[in-house]
Structures are given as C-alpha cells and as structure tokens.
Amino acid sequence: MDEETVERVRAAVRAIPPGETASYGEIADRCGLRSARLVGRILAEDGHDLPWHRVLRADGTCAPHIAQEQSARLRAEGVLLVDGRLPRRSPRRS
Questions:
Q1: How far is residue 92 CA from its own chain's centroid?
Q2: Strands (DSSP E) along 38-81, which ranges?
C-alpha cells in the first residue's frame, strides 16, 4: 500500500474528535478507499500513535482482540457502549 493512502487514513482518524466515533467503512469512504479492511490493516500496522479506539466496526462493536482496551478508552472520553455496542442514534424527525 502506498504512503499517500496511509497518510490519508491517518489524517482521517486523527480528525475524529474526542467523544465521537467513526466506522472503518466511514473512514474508508472519507479516504476514497474501497475497503474498510484496509483501514483496519493500516491502523494495526501504523496506528499506535492515533486515536484508533474511536474507530469501530460497522455494527458499533469493538474488534474482539482489542475490545477491553478500546471500550475503556472510549468510556474515558464519555462514549458508553451498551452490551459491547455503540447505541444507535434514533433517526431525526422533521
């Protein structure tokens, strides 16, 4: 994978404010990538200095191998998971 792609992903993850989350797919979309898995791979290989804990799976859950640390970091920022999942926001009504 090229350095430009890695830097786009890193910038998108850095841009997630404390107390907010994004999915791997949302990051992929923001970076013009076809694969959410590529975002996960980049974070696994080169994301230790990023707020990686703010990136969740599409269903609002943490990756199993990092779930305990990820949920603790999110909790410290005020993001509470319910039964291991980010609660879905109710749709806005006009």
A1: 23
A2: 55-56
Token digits of residue 88: 């879905």
Residue 32, by phi and psi: left (phi above 0), alpha (psi -120 to 50) or beta?
left
Predicted TM-score (pTM) of the model is 0.89
Q: Give the pLDDT score at 93.
A: 52
Give me the count of residues in the chain: 94
Q: Is 41 exposed, middle or buried (0-12, 13-18, 19+ CB in 10 A)?
A: middle
Q: For the range 1-4, what are the long-range contacts, defined as Cβ-Cβ under 8 Å and sequence gap of 24 or more?
A: 1/38, 1/41, 1/42
**Other beta carbons less than 10 A from residue 56's beta carbon:** 22
Q: What is the pLDDT of residues 47-70, one digit of tens each?
A: 999 999 999 999 999 989 999 999
3-class DSSP assignment, residue 23? strand
Between CA 94 and CA 23 the distance in angstroms is 26
